[in-house]
Amino acid sequence: MATMESLIGLVNRIQKACTVLGDYGGGDNTFSSLWEALPSVAVVGGQSSGKSSVLESIVGRDFLPRGSGIVTRRPLVLQLHKTEDGSQEYAEFLHLPKRRFSDFAVVRKEIQDETDRITGKSKQISPVPIHLSIYSPYVVNLTLIDLPGLTKVAVEGQPESIVQDIETMVRAYVEKPNCIILAISPANQDIATSDAIKLAREVDPSGERTFGVLTKLDLMDKGTNALDVLEGRSYRLQHPWVGIVNRSQADINKNVDMIVARRKEREYFATSPDYGHLSNKMGSEYLAKLLSKHLESAIRARIPSITSLINKTIDELESEMEHLGRPIAVDAGAKLYTILELCRAFDKVFKEHLDGGRPGGDRIYGVFDNQLPAALRKLPFDRHLSLQNVKRVVSEADGYQPHLIAPEQGYRRLIESALNYFRGPAEASADAVHFVLKELVRKSIAETQELRRFPSLQAELAAAANEALERFREDSKKTVLRLVDMESSYLTVDFFRRLPQEMDNKGGNPATPANPANSANPAIDRYSEMHFRRIGSNVSSYVGMVSETLRNTIPKAVVHCQVKEAKHSLLNYFYTQIGKKEGKQFSQLLDEDPALMERRLQCVKRLELYKAARDEVDSVSWAR
Ligand code: GDP
Ligand code: MG
């Protein structure tokens, strides 16, 4: 069963992972909240009050740059990870992920260099934190933040604003409600002038998350002691004050090592006439334990809110993953499968457009119901069957020999040339439907959520679909033109048979040349205006009949050749092409926007982390 120890370790791991993912403190990162929900410890105090020294003695290792003046110029986020007894101790920087440092002198050098990298070798400061993790069997699980010291005046080489800048930076850390404040004051200064206490009181008036630490007890004037402070009489805090004796500059220069320093500190308190009675509540080892214990209870108290935050974040991440799409498989077979799945998804959307689940298919009906009939109505038959033209065509067809009964050749020519006009609307129907289909392909690609991530596949699909549509259009045009040709290639017997009767029925005037054979003066009648008008009107009624037929058959042909084909075999050719491709080409088809891939990677990592966190938090919160 998980213990509290492992829970602190877990919090540390979560924070570590958060930092690797760029999810730490403030900023505009939407995922920073978990980091902020987890307790951390920040060290606050005036310059040279001993902040870095305190951190070092908590860690039990020399690794921080220390000294007089402004040494700490960037926040240092220090994560201590307790490892198994006997394991090798090492440190790792976030900015140098692959390097393990086992020499802590090199760690110190790297902190200095990394500070300079951002601030230059000046006395400038930067709020960009340095992240350092220490893995050791000798540390307690803790996250500590070392901050630049608060100052009162800008020194040579610093901008006037530095005093305020440092305060703003420090405040940003300590005002977070989950930040435990390690307020460092040197014992050789009046506590009333402590910058640390001043700031801590502002952001934590009740003192519930402030730990007062008094350094440099050994440097106090002879004959004075800090008992008033340490026993809480000078300034009351909820937690007891802890006195510390760090190494002096002289010790540091002499390379007094940490083990020796800790022993010396223990001896100092044990033998001190002033603090002897407090000796088991003083010193850096005690401080480390105190902090770790407090951290435990802080985490325990926050388990419910941490759990709900983790759950909320998991939900957010999952919906983001949904939005980004699942990661793509690696092997060729799975890739092919993915491509086919994506094609099917597109095809489904496309079909919905045609079948009416989505809008757009109705525009095809519009072509047949409006555009085609309108185009047919607009055909210039009036002009074509004008008296003048009928006369001309019939006469030309007769040649030198006038027709006797009905001008059969004339009829044929008039009808054939009239039917030619239908070619325009027939082809135009195929074109109009083609454009509707093309637009639906475009729309469907855009609407297929799953395809969003794959711009290359989108382009390929669009090209393949449009190519197919082009073929269907050609086929459709051939078919509709054939329909038109069919209407003109054989005039029905029926038509010719009906001609005389119709004329009889319609005419009603016995003198009219409805039946030229019966006419008294066929020659005159035959060429009278009435005669040609009648021819015109007969042709017109035939053309009208054909028009009616084509109005019905053109849509049938277009639907058959274009719409149905699009519905059933739009991607057939594409599928056969895909089948011939190889793994590498699949990858090309599935290459995503790199930014998106990166985003998903982050998302996956976070999800893993948060899910692991949820499991562990769950098991800890049940273990009592
Ligand atoms: P920071 O600026 O607050 O980080 O302070 P540092 O940790 O860099 O310490 C400033 C100087 O004070 C260094 O030279 C330390 O050796 C010295 N110092 C810090 N704490 C103590 C202490 O308890 N006793 C003595 N004698 N010197 C100390
Ligand atoms: Mg420092």
From TrEMBL:
Report the GO terms under cellular component: membrane; microtubule; phragmoplast
Tell me the organism: Salix koriyanagi
Q: Which positions fall inside the Dynamin-type G domain?
A: 35-304
What region holds the GED domain? 532-624
Enumerate the residue ranges of region (Disordered).
503-522
Quote the PROSITE patterns the UniProt record gives.
G_DYNAMIN_1, G_DYNAMIN_2, GED
Q: Which Pfam families match?
A: Dynamin_M (PF01031), Dynamin_N (PF00350), GED (PF02212)
Similarity field = Belongs to the TRAFAC class dynamin-like GTPase superfamily. Dynamin/Fzo/YdjA family.
Subunit (UniProt) = Forms homodimer and may homooligomerize and heterooligomerize to form the phragmoplastin complex. Binds to PHIP1.
Major subcellular location class = cytoplasm
In its keyword annotation, does this UniProt entry include rRNA processing? no
* InterPro entries linked: Dynamin (IPR022812), Dynamin_GTPase (IPR001401), Dynamin_GTPase_CS (IPR019762), Dynamin_N (IPR045063), Dynamin_stalk (IPR000375), G_DYNAMIN_dom (IPR030381), GED (IPR003130), GED_dom (IPR020850)
Q: Name one GO biological process term.
A: cell division
Keyword GTP-binding in annotation: yes
Official protein name in the record: DYNAMIN-RELATED PROTEIN 1E
Signal peptide positions on this chain: none
